[in-house]
Amino acid sequence: MEDGDDDGIISQKVRVEEEVEAYPTETVDLRCEFIDRGGRTKLTQVSWIWEPIDGQRDNIAVYHPTYGQSFPNPSFKDRVVFLHNTLENPSIRISKLKMSDTGRYTCEYATYPSGNEQGTTTLIMLAKPKNSVNVVTVQAETKSVVVATCEAMDGKPAATIKWLGSVGGNHTTTNTTNGPDGTVTVRSEYRLVPTAADNGREVTCMVEQKTQERPWAQTVQLSVEYPPSVSIEGYDNNWYVGRSDAVLLCMASGNPVPTTITWTAASGAMPDTVEVSGNKLTVRKVDDAVNTTFICEVKNKHGASRHQITTIVIEALEDPSSGGVVAGAVIGSLLALLLVIALIAVLLTRSRRQQRRGFPSSGDSIATGSGSNGGDYGNKARLLFSGTGNNSSKNGTGANNNGPIYTYREGCDATGTLTEKANDFHHHHLLHPAVGNPPSAHDILLSGEVDEVERRKFDLDDSMEEEYDRFGGGNMLPPAYHVHRGHGGEEELDVYLDDDMESQRDGSVISRTAIYV
């Protein structure tokens, strides 16, 4: 751009863009505008001049208001047009760009009276590089060699190449080539001292260039070839006579992968019970013939490797499966025995609890006896009174007991005292109670006409049962109830232990504290 002042006269001005970037095959607009602030300049003609290199000037487009448009350079023919058919705005458009179109483009006016006025735009042609990375297959050795290459080809401006990796190598940019159209090709090599351990490891090539929105990167795996290595797996030191399908595996590694695997036996010919398939050796039936040394050999183009293993045949052991069956049978028997014991324990406990808490039937006496030893007693409660049954005996003893029987009489003599009676209880005391004086707990129990709900009122609590257990459980007589009047005139039941009872010579049992008349 050019402008200036002289004696207060406003000069003319050509306005253009300083720099424009474009890509091959695309289209670019080069703008140009004449600014006449004073309105005193006469425009005669405008031309676009291309300077590919310094000192070389070629007219590519001319516009004259009388003679029209002209495109004298054959390289731009049919590729250049004027956007506006005026001198004041002679902008042009170039299509089908080539890398060779790069250079300076000058918009030049022929004016009167000031002469020529011009403005220059630099066209920068850009090219995206064609990036690639390649692995170089090498053999493991002791000197540094190229293991990978990376290339950014035909780019403009020139690209920058970096390497990323953890294999301990280094890289160098070995070659930069300038093309005839101004493009640049950059190559870089990655070098290291290759070992077998480097085979398959990764390195990354990264290319940075102005035309790329972000760095280009690609990862490759190194290829290092080396002779094979081999080992034999599967022997468990338990080859006993009669064992079936014992297997050995020949495990080989190498680059390239070994193509030849050979099994041999140190004793000579391979035993008849042995089958070989690739790297797998199978002994169908172990016998003394496989008490030998097996050898596996593998090969690739860089060499061969072998490994051997000695198998020792031992005497046949008990079939492991039978041991499992025996162990299962033993465990099953123990579980069944524990189940039976648990069932018996549950049944015994339940029976004992029923004996402890059970009541005699309504037809039996509260305390009955059988035989000369005093017989059975109820487990929950027992009164020192006889029932009404014909087979009842006095004081809980058998038929031979000649001792007195006591009943608690209330409502008949109103004294609440113990009275000796014959072994027959008069139910009329319950059937015809005195007015205002209801049947006592004693009468209810002796009557035998009591339901389950009423019986529970006379159950022993847990502490009584524990006391009963302390005195011998089923071998002792259970505790009995003793009826007396409380402070409020109501009947209360006390419990006393059966150690109060005393056996007699005739087989009867009598109380030590009872008063006999």
TrEMBL record:
Q: Is Ribonucleoprotein given among the entry's keywords?
A: no
Q: What residues does the Ig-like domain cover?
A: 11-124, 129-223, 228-310
Family to which the UniProt record says this protein belongs: Belongs to the nectin family.
SMART domains (UniProt xref): IG (SM00409), IGv (SM00406)
Organism field: Champsocephalus esox (pike icefish)
Pfam families with a match to the protein in the record: C2-set_2, V-set
Task: Give the membrane topology, semicolon-separated if more than one.
Answer: Single-pass membrane protein
Alphabetized InterPro entries for the sequence: CD80_C2-set, Ig-like_dom, Ig-like_dom_sf, Ig-like_fold, Ig_sub, Ig_V-set, Nectin/PVR
Which SUPFAM superfamilies does the record associate with it? Answer: Immunoglobulin
> Which cellular component appears as one GO term in the record?
adherens junction
Q: Which UniProt keywords apply?
A: Cell adhesion, Cell junction, Cell membrane, Disulfide bond, Glycoprotein, Immunoglobulin domain, Membrane, Repeat, Signal, Transmembrane, Transmembrane helix
Give the transmembrane ranges. 325-348
- Give the GO biological process terms: cell adhesion
This protein is called Nectin cell adhesion molecule 3
UniProt subcellular location:
Cell junction, Adherens junction; Cell membrane
Q: By its UniProt entry, which PANTHER family does this protein fall under? A: NECTIN-2
